[in-house]
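Sequence in, structure out.
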Amino acid sequence: RLRASGLMPAVVYGPGSEPEAVAVNPKEVAKILHSTSGHNTIFNLGVNGGNTPVMVVDWQYDPIKGSLLHVDLKRIDLTKRLTVKVPVLTQGEPKGVKIQGGIHEIVTREVEVECLPDDIPEQFTVDVSNLSIGESIRAGDIPLSGSVKLRSLPDTVISHVVSLRAEETTAAATGVEAAAPAGEPEV
C-alpha cells in the first residue's frame, strides 16, 4: 500500500535513538543518489516532528523496473568524524600512452576517508598526464585538505601505465605453441 501511494519504506538508525521505520519519497531519494555528492549527501529528514541529519547508507533497486524499493538511512552527528568512500577521477592523458605506446589502467575508483560530515569531498581528481610506463598513482598521493584523513592503504594503486610489450611476447609464444600441435590428427 505504501508503494502504491507513491512512497517507499525506509529505516533510520544510528546514534541518538532506536531504529525506526519511515516512509520517504523515492523520487527525492533518487535525486540525492544521482547528485554530484551521491550517497555521501547529508540531508535533513523529518522524523517525529523534528529534523534529523541523515545520509543514505544502503539502497535496493527493483531488478526489472529499476525503481528504488528501500533505503537505509543513518543518523549523522555533525560534530563527530565518520568514514565514507569518495570517488577518484583521473584527468589528462598519460605521456606513457601518448609517447611510449602503453596502456592506462584505472585500478581503484574510490578511496575511503575519515572526516567531519561538513568536510566530505564530492570527489578527488588526480592528474595522470606525467605518468610514464611502469609508473603509478597511489592513494597516498591524493592531496587531502581540511579534516580529511586517508583510511585506505596508502599503497593502494589508483591508476598506472603498463607496457604492451609483455602482451605481444605472450601472444607470440602462444601462437608458436598453438601452431605445433595443429599438424596432429584430432582424436
